[in-house]
Amino acid sequence: MEQPLDIEALNKQIHLESAFVDQIKKEAGKVIIGQHHMVERLLLGLLAKGHVLLEGLPGLAKTLAIKTLSKCINADFSRIQFTPDLLPADIVGTLIYNPNKSEFTVRKGPIFANFVLADEINRAPAKVQSALLEAMQERQVTIGTDTYNLEEPFLVLATQNPIEQEGTYPLPEAQTDRFMLKVKITYPKKEEERQIIRLIMSGDKLPKVEPVVSVEDIIKARNLVRRIYMDEKIETYITDIVFATRFPAEYGLKDMQHMINYGGSPRASINLAMASKAYAFLQRRGYVIPEDVRAICHDVLRHRIGLTYEAEAENITQEDIINKILDTVEVP
User: Fold this and answer.
1) Whole-angstrom distance, CA of residue 47 vs CA of residue 63
2) Terminal CA-to-CA distance of the chain, rounded, Å?
3) Beta bridge pairs of residue 147
4) Of 26, 47, 205, 309, which has the highest C-beta tally within 10 A?
5) In which element (H, E) is residue 158 found?
6) Helices 318-328, 290-301: inter-axial angle, 10-degree rounding
7) Strand partners, 54
8) Do 153 and 48 contact (CB within 8 A), yes or no?
9) Structure pTM?
10) Is 75 exposed, middle or buried (0-12, 13-18, 19+ CB in 10 A)?
């Protein structure tokens, strides 16, 4: 159980330490018009030390948003374009034989960066996707017999197209569960799209994005996020929400029992708690309230609930189930 803190002092510290958030949003706003939800969720993943999966149609600035965020932070960035012919060694690296020295040397792959953009992650087969598992969970990579730690902050930001199924490989549950957030990207508003046209037509190149925060500042902010106070009632609320995805009948949701194939794992509870703290940090608050949990609940749980064939036949989505759970579970 977390001990109560001096909330007033923590609030002041958060106001001071979170100034870079507005700077990042301002810099990102030079090239990203609208899409505030997506930018905010990328910041949540950054602060909560969680990987983010962006799902949306082509042309919605998913890749551009990730590249822009990495430019705002003075950190290493690498991009991996996932294709069916990609090999695990193309991601993590491999051993190269040096005939002059008669020995093998390690050539590190693009996974050795602070920000790794896995573009169209579902275009590579499971063998390649699984090469990311160790890196995402353990923050380390094994090449040959040696294991190498990845430098913090380490973040995998992946994109996938939800409608194009030909030549794609659905991510296995073990892989999707390692993403803290799965964010669905929608079309911009009409006025935002006009601004996008104006921006693109105004010159050959997009405005230059400058680094406004260092890696050290991000690590400091992460440590502060962990210190944000979470009451026992909020902890109970989080576990009730996750347990309702596993045992809906126990929460008065008998009609949903035949809709859910499997519910959220303990990782769902951990990520919901961490993301709630990060959301409170973005709101400049030193404590978590139920609205923080509800605000990020869909992004944390939508990829952790398995639907039955019956649910799919009735066009029931994960969003529908999460909405019903949030409407039913008692709010502290």
Assistant:
1) 20
2) 17
3) 142
4) 47
5) strand 155-160
6) 160
7) 159, 183
8) no
9) 0.86
10) buried
As a whole number of angstroms, the distance between CA 13 and CA 144 comes to: 45
* Residue 66, number of CB atoms within 10 A of its CB: 25
Cβ(57)–Cβ(162) under 8 Å? yes
Where do the domains of the chain lie, and which CATH numbers do they carry? 18-220 (3.40.50.300), 229-328 (1.10.8.80)
Residue 297 structure tokens: 């609940």
Q: How many CA atoms lie within 13 A of 6 on its CB side?
A: 3
Q: What is the pLDDT along the chain (332 residues), one digit of tens a residue?
A: 444 457 788 888 888 878 888 888 888 888 888 778 888 898 999 999 899 998 888 777 788 888 888 888 888 888 888 888 888 888 888 888 878 877 888 888 889 988 888 888 888 888 887 778 778 888 888 887 888 888 888 888 888 877 666 667 778 777 788 899 999 888 888 888 888 888 888 776 777 888 888 888 888 899 999 989 999 999 999 999 999 999 988 888 888 888 888 888 899 999 999 999 999 999 988 889 999 999 999 999 999 998 889 888 888 888 999 999 999 988 88
Quickly list DSSP for 117-137: EEETGGGS-HHHHTHHHHHHH
Q: How many angstroms separate the Cα of 163 from the Cα of each of 56, 124, 170, 209?
A: 9, 16, 12, 31
Distance CA 297, CA 325 (A): 10
In a 3-state reduction of DSSP, which class is residue 289?
coil
Q: Which two tokens stand for residue 207?
A: 């405005």
Phi, psi (degrees; rounded to nearest 5) at 308: -80, 165
Residue 39 neighbours by CB under 8 Å, 6+ apart: 25, 28, 32, 65, 69
Name, in order, each residue with C-beta under 8 angstroms of 331's C-beta and a sequence gap of 6 or more: 237, 290
Both structure tokens of 232? 């026992």
Residue 52, beta-bridge partner list:
157, 181
Q: How far is CA 88 from CA 52, 97, 111, 237, 244, in A?
A: 20, 18, 11, 40, 37
